[in-house]
Structures are given as C-alpha cells and as structure tokens.
Design brief:
With about 60 residues, the chain is mainly alpha-helical. It has two helices and no strands.
Length: about 60
C-alpha cells in the first residue's frame, strides 16, 4: 500500500511543478528573455519524459 501512496505523492508533486512551470511559461511570453523560454521548453520535455517513464502520460 505504501508503494501506491508513494507513487501518488510523486504524481501530485509533479502536478504542482507543472502548475509552477505553466506560470513561468506565461511570464516568458511577456518577457523578451529567451533564457526563460528555453528553460520552459527544456523543463516541459523533462516532465514529459518523467510522465512517460512512470506510465503517467495516460492520466493527462
């Protein structure tokens, strides 16, 4: 049972990170700073990889 709880906790934490990333990406649209835009794209790729590895991409 703790394995399921741990996985749910990890999934919930990733969802919180995604919310923060969405806000950061929104800010990057208002800023000409390409560093923030590039960072957003790299973080989105990383999150997608984590979701794929954990089998969470179906939960979107």
């Amino acid at each position: 049972m703790t394995v399921i709880a741990d996985e749910l906790q990890q999934y919930a934490a990733l969802q919180i990170v995604k919310i923060g990333l969405d806000k950061l990406c929104d800010l990057s649209l208002k800023s000409p700073d390409m560093y923030i835009t590039d960072l957003c794209m790299e973080l989105e790729k990383l999150i997608s990889e984590i979701e794929y590895i954990n089998g969470w991409e179906q939960l979107k």
